[in-house]
């Protein structure tokens, strides 16, 4: 049976469209949050697990897989850090500036003087750029919306993404820890911790609840990469893990099993049948732009009264978010990635 390592060659895979699908699932969930408030429930769930929740886990599984590959290819801490910074920061800086200088002034309920003089307004830029507390937003924004005062419900995951990058680099450059057994044990331990905290201490600080949850997903992806030459590329594990996840229902342990379902589906969909089915490897990667821009745009659309129902919000907001994500990719993110490539090529020369 073919192994994952035999099919994962460079960029010839379907991970770009998969990221767009995952971002779309998060968007689907946020349509209802923006239109109906933060206590709203997604219309679709898998035994109590929402598509948005599972999609975020899927992002971290795929990120763990790809970051592990990036570390092994680069084998240079400086290049790894620069590449990650140029992937995350340029688009995020544009978003932070737009939040305060463009969106905030037209969405605030405060007077112009009160808005510009508020420390909350100006602190929101470093909060976004340096992955700090991104709850709330510039002073007085969206106070009349069903999800009042919230600029973005997506950005909070980025701090855990950066922490995962740092932890992966530490494990890799320690070398003695970058082994299949070590990473697998770390995944098992973090998965157990995430389930335990969710079951016994749901009131624990979010940094522990969400941190352990997302670390477990990231480590699963990293373990899959490290053991890529041993793991078959097949859907057969779903025969066991999918019924198990379904039977566990809303029990916190189900999240661990759903991660196995997600990892199986993502890797198979991304790598199987490359010779028979186009991979779409040349497609633009709009997923990051979709992920960071959709929520504030949805909030703005609702604030202006362009939509008054989840369906209207989706019909208006998704095309606008897609257009902004495309602009972000072609004019911000892609040039930054080209800069990264030029820096390393010139350094090699």
Automatic annotation (TrEMBL):
Query: Which superkingdom heads the taxonomic lineage of this protein's source?
Result: Bacteria
Name the record gives this protein: Acyltransferase
- Acyltransferase domain residues are 18-328
Keyword Transmembrane among UniProt keywords? yes
Q: Which residue windows are transmembrane per the record?
A: 20-40, 52-71, 92-116, 181-199, 205-226, 233-249, 255-274, 311-332
Keyword annotations: Acyltransferase, Membrane, Transferase, Transmembrane, Transmembrane helix
Give the species: Maricaulis virginensis
Q: Name one Pfam family in it.
A: Acyl_transf_3
Gene Ontology molecular functions: acyltransferase activity, transferring groups other than amino-acyl groups
């Amino acid at each position: 049976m073919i192994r994952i390592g035999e099919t994962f060659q460079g960029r010839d895979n379907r991970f770009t469209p998969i990221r767009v699908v995952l971002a779309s699932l998060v968007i689907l969930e946020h349509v209802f949050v923006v239109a109906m408030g933060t206590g709203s429930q997604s219309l679709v769930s898998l035994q109590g697990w929402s598509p948005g929740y599972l999609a975020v886990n899927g992002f971290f599984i795929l990120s763990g897989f790809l970051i592990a590959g990036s570390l092994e290819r680069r084998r240079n801490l400086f290049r790894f850090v620069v590449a990650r910074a140029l992937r995350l920061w340029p688009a995020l800086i544009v978003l932070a500036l737009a939040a305060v200088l463009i969106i905030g002034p037209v969405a605030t309920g405060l007077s112009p003087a009160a808005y510009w003089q508020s420390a909350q307004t100006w602190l929101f830029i470093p909060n976004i750029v340096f992955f700090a507390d991104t709850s709330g937003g510039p002073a007085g924004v969206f106070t009349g919306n069903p999800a009042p005062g919230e600029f973005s419900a997506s950005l909070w995951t980025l701090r855990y993404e950066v922490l995962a990058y740092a932890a992966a680099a530490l494990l890799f450059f320690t070398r003695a820890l970058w082994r299949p057994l070590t990473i697998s044990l770390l995944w098992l331990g973090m998965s157990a911790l995430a389930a335990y905290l969710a079951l016994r201490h749901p009131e624990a600080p979010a940094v522990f609840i969400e941190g352990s949850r997302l670390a477990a997903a990231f480590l699963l992806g990293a373990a899959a990469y490290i053991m890529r030459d041993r793991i078959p590329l097949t859907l057969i594990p779903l025969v066991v893990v999918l019924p198990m996840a379904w039977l566990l229902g809303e029990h916190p342990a189900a999240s661990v099993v759903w991660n196995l379902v997600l990892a199986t589906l993502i890797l198979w969909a991304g790598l199987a049948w490359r010779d028979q089915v186009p991979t779409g490897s040349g497609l633009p990667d709009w997923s990051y732009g979709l992920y960071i821009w959709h929520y504030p745009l949805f909030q703005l659309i609702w604030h202006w009264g362009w939509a008054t129902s989840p369906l209207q919000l989706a019909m208006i907001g998704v095309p606008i978010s897609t257009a902004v994500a495309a602009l972000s990719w072609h004019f911000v993110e892609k040039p930054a990635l080209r800069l990264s490539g030029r820096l390393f090529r010139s350094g090699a020369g």
